[in-house]
């Protein structure tokens, strides 16, 4: 039995309002057994939590403030986020990180938000889902210090601290993340015909540190590139990983399913 997982998609987004249940049913029909839906702000966090209540055990939520959706970082925001993170069905803090490409939020505030949410993750013993766009040096410096602190305190998160979502940095960065026990999220661009570097890096990464992600509705894999993405396309990403690693599709599904279980403490 093939057990596919989508460890990162945004089913709460408005692009699914007209057919959300059908999209989710297509995922199950395609062989998925579990989906993780991260929020990007307090409103979408709550929508993700609500979705877990409709699909208990099949869809879980992560909660966080995305760097592109920063707001005044007040104690009230921290309190609301902490309350959301304590809700049943929430298994991670995310999507959090740094984004120096769009700069919708000043970089100094992004760093403040990121560090505060890493501290919250440690406090609640929840793994993190990391967004990185053109911010690799600062992001890895922050993660390295955070992980070192986890190790020094014998914190259980040190063993499986999180995932670098939709990984697009270089192999050296991936190796440094894996050294800290992070997982690497592989998404649709690995299937693109014009992405030889992405394919080469993915081929070099150990499969026991990989997770399958769509980032739907974005990053639709080939041959559906250009239309709305959805979790049912996960097998296309898994097929490309299988081809790059010269292993079976079933093996990719099995190992990435086990990786998701380890990281998100799934029963």
Describe the structure using short key phrases.
single chain, 267 residues, alpha/beta, TIM Barrel, 9 helices
Quick take:
This protein has 267 residues and is of the alpha/beta class. It has 9 helices and 8 strands. Strand 6, helix 6 and strand 7 form a beta-alpha-beta unit.
Please tell me about this protein's structure:
By secondary structure, this protein is α/β, with parallel strands linked by helices. It has one domain (4-264): Metal-dependent hydrolases (TIM Barrel). The protein contains 9 helices and 8 strands. It has helices at 20-29, 42-54, 75-85, 107-124, 136-152, 171-179, 196-204, 234-245, 249-264; strands at 4-6, 32-38, 59-63, 90-99, 128-133, 162-164, 183-186, 210-212. It has an 8-stranded parallel beta sheet with strand order 1-2-3-4-5-6-7-8. Helix 6 links the parallel strand 6 (162-164) and strand 7. Helix 2 (42-54) packs parallel to helix 3 and helix 8 (234-245) crosses helix 9 (249-264). The protein is globular, with a radius of gyration of 17 Å. It starts with a strand and ends with a helix. The mean pLDDT is 97.
């Amino acid at each position: 039995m093939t057990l596919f997982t989508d460890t990162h998609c945004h089913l709460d987004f408005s692009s699914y309002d007209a057919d959300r249940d059908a999209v989710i049913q297509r995922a199950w029909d395609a062989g998925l057994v579990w989906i993780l839906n991260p929020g990007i702000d307090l409103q979408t966090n709550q929508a993700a939590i609500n979705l877990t209540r409709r699909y208990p055990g099949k869809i879980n939520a992560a909660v966080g403030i995305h760097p592109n959706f920063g707001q005044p970082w007040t104690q009230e925001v921290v309190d609301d986020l902490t309350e959301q993170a304590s809700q049943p069905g929430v298994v991670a803090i995310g999507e959090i990180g740094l984004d120096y490409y769009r700069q919708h939020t000043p970089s100094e505030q992004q760093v403040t938000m990121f560090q505060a949410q890493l501290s919250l993750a440690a406090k609640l013993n929840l793994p993190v889902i990391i967004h990185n766009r053109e911010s690799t040096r600062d992001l890895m410096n922050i993660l390295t210090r955070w992980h070192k602190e986890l190790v020094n305190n014998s914190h259980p998160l040190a063993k499986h601290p999180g995932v670098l979502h939709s990984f697009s940095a270089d192999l050296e960065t991936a190796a440094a993340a894996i050294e800290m026990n992070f997982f690497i999220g592989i998404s649709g661009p690995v299937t693109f015909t014009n992405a030889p570097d992405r394919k080469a890096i993915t081929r070099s990464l150990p499969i026991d540190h990989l997770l399958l992600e769509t980032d739907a509705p974005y990053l639709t894999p080939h041959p559906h590139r250009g239309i709305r993405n959805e979790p049912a396309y996960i097998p296309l990403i898994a097929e490309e990983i299988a081809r790059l690693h010269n292993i079976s599709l079933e093996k990719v599904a099995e190992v990435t399913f086990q990786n998701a279980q380890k990281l998100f403490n799934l029963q």
